[in-house]
Amino acid sequence: MPKISSSLILVFLLCLFSCVPSEKPDPLPDDDQLIEEDDDNEKALRTEFSYKVDGKEISGVVKEGENSITTLTGELKQNTDYTSISIGSVIFDSDKLYATVIIINTTKPFSSIKEGDSFEGNTSNPVLLTIATLGIADFDDDTVDYSGDLTTYKDQNLMINITEIDHENKLVSGTFSFDSHSTELDIHKKVTEGKFSNLRLEE
Prior knowledge:
- The chain is mainly beta.
- It contains 2 helices and 11 strands; from the N terminus they run ααβββββββββββ.
- The longest helix is centred in the first third of the chain and has 13 residues.
- The relative contact order is 0.19.
- This is DUF5689 domain-containing protein.
- It comes from Algoriphagus halophytocola.
- Keywords: Signal.
């Protein structure tokens, strides 16, 4: 049975933020630089991730084999009882780092997940635990605002839709939205128009 705690997610976010350079990074390369063909005339896998936080657009792009301040990760765990998919992003924007973590747990085998499948936020059944969280690290005041604990995951209105999936290469694309809130930190933000494409799920 999959288990996850708010402290585990917080540790994940803080580990990501601990890799932040002491100086503000340069902006991402121009789009043209990210889609240049490799020496063998084949394009490397390009992963895109974007969403809005209270209407402010946050987006990042990663091309395989290139270093970037943007971090986009996917993880797949599966056994005979359930499939667990974790999707993570860290994106630099306007002197802040924005991090999201989305975790999907389902009793469906990975091989049967298909385009058009939807997953709603769920905390009532540990086997189907499906949650999301948002963290914002501010370069100017060295603070990390983190939203999401087991008491606030219940009212997230989380929805994830699979728009494309490649089972052989374990690539997934989709959309998402959720409400992010933490009473303790007084964080109440809406994450809307979320989209990820060509995200590779590592086992």
